[in-house]
Amino acid sequence: MARLPVVSGRQAVRAFERAGWEHVRTKGDHMILVKNGVRANLSVPDHPELDRGTLRRLIALAGIDVQEFAELLRK
After folding, report:
1. Model pTM score
2. d(Cα 75, Cα 67) in Å, to the nearest integer?
3. Residue 2: is its pLDDT beyond 80?
4. Which of 50, 63, 64, 72 is least crowded, fewest Cβ atoms below 10 Å from its Cβ?
């Protein structure tokens, strides 16, 4: 299993956008992402460092694994 990277909310949003998610709005300090064909929305906190559990849950909701997410960060 790949190590979970330490990222900010904005870095995570960029990675999810590379995976086909679209940032549609910001509510408070959370950025909301949607993807056609997926029922779940991602609510990413705009924090300097995301909590590991929060990031792990967002990755799972996005339907990717940690390795894929790490590769999306490097693109």
Report:
1. 0.94
2. 13
3. no
4. 63
